[in-house]
Amino acid sequence: ILFYNLGEPILNQVVIQGISADSPAEAAGLQAGDLLLEVNQTPVQSTEDLQTMILANLGTPTELTYQRGDQIQTVTLVPRDPPPEDGAIGILMGNPSRPTTWMKAVPNGFTLAYQYTRAVLALPVRALRGETTAEERPLGYKGMFDIYQQIRNPLWFFMVISMSLGIFNLFPIPALDGGRILFTLPEILLRRRVPPQYENVIHMVGFVVLIFLLIYINVQDFLNPIEFPR
User: Alpha carbon 139 to chain centroid distance?
Assistant: First the structure.
């Protein structure tokens, strides 16, 4: 339903979704909705392409060719050393979309669900390796509400929240469903049940840890609120 309503993303095109204040992009006159075509006469084929080419020209006058409506124009700007919470030229990138059919929307939905599930499952491993960024930290109620106020499609927001809760609940953590499933494995495989008194204590400890974690995450929403492009 989400893909059918939003349309099919055109992955080989890049559109500006937002402009930061006092940025090179704003000074050059770029606007949200502009379709970026070339950087220094090299075609832009994806958001990764654009990011790579911009970062390769930090501090150097760079030509950007873009399309606005029916007009194609070129501007010159100087990508800066990316400041915290912003990019080298100060834009929020994305892909334009086109109308799609149910035949395409359904498999795209399954693909998105798979990719998102994979990303969530990989997050704890990446965190242990120190590969996560500050923007990837867990959010509490205030953080989720802040995001909800900024997004353009509430359906996308509730899809992400529902999938995150469903996946997290299946982690093998005491007090969650995943933890309870873990305790049933010995009974299924060995026909021997973990003594209930031990299981109850472990679940109680897990529940207390989760409550403290919940408090910590929600406090961080106030101490380190998430930043959005201006």
Answer: 12
